[in-house]
User: Fold N-acetyl-D-glucosamine kinase from Octadecabacter antarcticus 307.
Amino acid sequence: MIAAGIDAGGTKIEVQLFNADWLVVESKRIASPTDYDQLVAAIADLISWVDAQVGKIIPVGLGFPGLIDRNTGFALTANLPTTGRPLPRDINVACSRNITFLNDCRALALSEAVFGHGKGHRTVLSLILGTGIGGGIAIDGVLWSGPNDISGEFGHTPLAAHLVQEFDLPLVRCGCGRMGCVETLIAGPGLARLAAALTGIQASPPELMHLRATNPTIQRVWDIWCKITAELLHSIILTVDPDVIILGGGLSKIDSIAADLQIALHGIQLAALRDTRILCAQGGDASGARGAAFAALHEARHV
Assistant:
């Protein structure tokens, strides 16, 4: 094995071990702790598991759903209990070694641009649809970023006003602290919130998708969800103009999600635009682990 990657989300944490051909040799998945100290301990345990499997120290990358302030080293997250805490320092101390850190959505973009469905395309955009919403941009196989490392924080843009008015959508406070972020209605918990607001039905996303086949009311909820998400995609396309959009996260496992979003996007985009292809991640809902591992190996070779 040459490297390991950890994909940490608000619901699950998965570690993957990769061989020289970048194939997954071993993997392990756990539920995400809701307590900070338990979270650090759980990630440290997964890294110890890597060491035990390999029998030696290899580069480990961690993709997590948030930002690390370059000046303070403190984390800012909406869906993990890490805001205001020195996550990289605490994990490095717990592991007695340095781990490579990057945003999980950017890790997905890197993974798919180098190895997955984005390979061979110049501009690859990732969109994670999970406990939260986020994305990343890779150009010629290299992540694009800026001075604040916030490129891809698509989930914290506002809901489209005309859709809020048309469907009487609820405006709620996001985990980031802002009001009315698109994440609040299209992330996994947001889809459940949307169904409850429009129908009164309390159900998880998997339960809703099971009901969708026989319940026209739930199908309407899904259609509205697709419209909200398509508006987000359209705004991103007008800004970035990617060759391909890669979906990751738990919701990306929903049957027909890429096709449904493609149809919804085609119905609202400017007439002069060609359709931007939407695909689910080749590496699955934890494809970001591969991107994190690749970044860790690259960093180790250039130290």
Q: What stands out?
A: The radius of gyration is 19 Å. The longest strand covers residues 24-31. The first helix runs from residue 36 to 54.
